[in-house]
Every structure is written in structure tokens, then in C-alpha cells.
Amino acid sequence: MHDWSSPQSFLVTSISAPRVLLDGRLAGPATVVVDDGVVAEVLDGASPEADITLDRGVLTPGLVDIQTNGCFGVDFITASEQDWHLVSDRLPSTGVTAFQPTYITAPMQTLLSGLDRAGAVIDSLRGAQAMGVHLEGPFLSPQRPGVHDPQYLVDPTPDRIDAVLATLAAEHTRDLVTMVTLAPELEGGLEAVRRLAGAGIRVSLGHTDALAAQVLAAADAGATLITHIFNAQRPLNHREPGVPGAALYDARFTCGLIADLHHVAPEICTLVWRAAAGRVALVTDAIAAAGMPPGEYELSGIKVFLGEDGVPRDAAGVIGGSALTLDRAIRNLVGIGLDEASVLSAATRVPADALGRPDLGRIAPGTRADLAWFDDGYRPLRTWVAGRSVFEAGSGAQAPNGPHRLAREHQPA
């Protein structure tokens, strides 16, 4: 991975803004001083000597997406070197500066080959930076497969977990796997949680038919996240809380939420927000269709069609990921009346913390100077990665805004 603390050809830069997201609240005006790619200090007030003066909108940490299968026509599991660079260069147009590429269920050899290709390229990315790879499968329940191909779902046996852990020591994939989604009720599930968590891999529960008691047992074993809450999991019931009930009850869990307002209705988004205040991480679960026009795309070899309603579905009509971008998720939730600062935190600090990355997702001395400037309607205007300007609206790299991307998007007041 990149060593952002090593000397680089960065100049000291200061950016003043009328509103800045600091410590989970919108404050300002303030001036952010960047030195060699990290935030050196944050000053009260708009410094008249600032190198860059933002006259409107809000300056936030760069957005952090910890679950994305692909975008801009690229499916990560089969991505070429050119594909990786394309995504890295274009994601900042959505305000994203750090992302965790996700590989869904496939034969183990396909997953391992995908890891080899990723390991060979991600250190050279110029734009948004990859944080590591999330394996969403194949250790998932055949009772809750979603769009995952059931023929490749397997139990997390010791030898299969050995194969995952071996990637942590391999030359090209060292420390590359940062998160695994699994179903804890499968044979060997809890032991897999213990081994993965013990190796420093974040364990998320998803595509699972687990009872609430099994979810809590997985938390005891080291699981800390829930993959796309309410989707592809045993539902909430007043007598059996299921996966969502246990996740909302137990503060050890960070809850991933796909806020396209299709996967989870606006009313339920609001309930999740209230019940799990401060521990909701906005995710896109985006596929290759994100940022692209309606048509046919692939998700780990599965044909998925993006319709005019902006929702990708397989041939059986099952939703397969999303065409969401993280900036649009912010606009959606602000548009239904949720607090702006908490929504922004859910796309920055909360997901960064969920992966144990205190250097990301916040504007504070010592953190990587990943910054995003949004207009008052939360559309990206400019993005910096480690102090380098990597996107500027109007420069030719425009944020995707395809027709009917999300039919239910609520515009901010």
C-alpha cells in the first residue's frame, strides 16, 4: 500500500471554506493547512492569506466507500490495469477519495486470481485510493443468496479460510484482503469469524439467515459490520429480531446502508438512522453500471440489466447491486430530512473507522489530506487526494449524472 508519510513533491497549501465538516459537525468558516499530503492544522476563520478560497458550499473529508463492486463500466473482479486506473481517476468526480473494491461470490480460484491482479496495480493508482479488497462471498447462505450464484456458495471450512489468510503473506497480495462478508450460521462460521478477525480482517455479516442469537455470537467472536442492512438477510420480526434487529440493538456493529431509496425505503432509512445513530456507514454496493447509461452489464460474470428506473436487476428480476454513487446517497438522505453533518459523517468518518483507518474520513492534524468541496446542493466541485487536486468541475471530468439514475431521489430543500 502507499506510504503517504514518505517525502513527496507536495507544497504547503491552505484552503479556506465557509463551512467545514469538523468532528462530526458543520463549522466555519475555517482554513485547512496541508503540508506534504497531510493536514497540518485547522484554523478558525477564513484566512485572507489562504492559497485557495472557497466562496460557497462545504469542505468535507474525501468520501470513503467500503463496498463497491465496480463502476464506470468496470467490474473489479475482472478489471485490467487500465480499468483500475480509469475507476481511480473518475471516482473523485463523485467526491470519493478512498474505496474498498468488493468481489462477490465466484469460484475460489477466480477470487484469488482477481486478488493477484489487484495487488499488482493498486499501489500505482493516481486518483482515489483502494483501501484493500472486500470478499463478499463465497461463504454465504444459500437461503439468502440475492444475486450471488448459489453453485459457488461454500462453507467457511478451515482450508478455505487458510487460502484467504495466505493472501496476507503472499508477495503481491500482502495485507490486500481487508474485509470478508460471511454467514455466521454456516458450518465453521464462528471459527472463521475468530480466525479472520484475529488476523486483522474486518468481518461483516451478510447474505445470512442467522437468528439474532447467532448474530450476537458472531459479534462475540469478532464480527463488527453488517453488509447492506435489511437486504439478503433474515428480516426483522417482533419475536425474532433477525439480522437487522440484532444489528440495531448491538452497538458493536457498524451498519452498511445502501441509500438509493430502492434497497431500503426512506422511512426505514430514517429508522436505521435513529436506532444506530453514529454507526451507519453509507455504501454504494455499486456495480459496473454506476455512472453509465441503461443497458446490460456484468457482475462477477452475472448478466445484470440497468433499467430506466436506475436499478440493476438480473434475468429473474432480483436487484443486483446498485448504480448509486456516494455523493448521490448523501443528497438522497439530506433530501429526506436527515441531519447534514451526520449524513456526511456516515460517508466519511464512520466507514473509515469501520476499517480501522483513523487517517481517513476526517479533517484533523495528521490525517491524509483527502478533501472534497461540495456546492450547497451536495454536488462535487473539487476533490483532493493527499493534497493533490484530482478533480475540478468544468475541467472535463464531470461527475456522472445520467438520466433517471434514481427515480426516487429527493432533492435537498
Features:
single chain, 413 residues, alpha/beta, Urease, subunit C, domain 1, TIM Barrel, 2 domains, nine-stranded parallel β-sheet, four-stranded mixed β-sheet, 10 helices, 24 strands, 22% helix, 25% strand, globular, disordered N terminus, disordered C terminus, N-acetylglucosamine-6-phosphate deacetylase activity
Q: How would you characterize this protein structure?
A:
- By secondary structure, the chain is of the alpha/beta class.
- It has 2 domains: 13-60 and 361-392, Urease, subunit C, domain 1 (Roll); 62-354, TIM Barrel, CATH 3.20.20.140.
- 22% of the residues lie in helices and 25% in strands.
- The protein contains 10 helices and 24 strands.
- The chain has helices spanning 81-90, 108-119, 158-166, 189-198, 212-221, 242-249, 266-275, 326-335, 340-346, 349-354; strands at 13-17, 20-22, 25-27, 30-35, 38-44, 52-53, 58-61, 63-68, 70-71, 74-75, 96-104, 129-130, 133-136, 177-182, 202-205, 225-226, 254-258, 280-283, 295-299, 302-306, 312-313, 371-374, 380-385, 388-392.
- The strands form 6 sheets. Strands 8, 11, 12, 13, 14, 15, 16, 17 and 18 form a 9-stranded parallel β-sheet that branches.
- Strand 20 (302-306) and strand 21 (312-313) form a beta hairpin.
- Helix 5 crosses helix 6.
- The longest helix is centred in the N-terminal third of the chain and has 12 residues, at 108-119.
- The radius of gyration is 20 Å and the shape is globular.
- Residues 1-10 and 397-413 have low confidence and may be disordered.
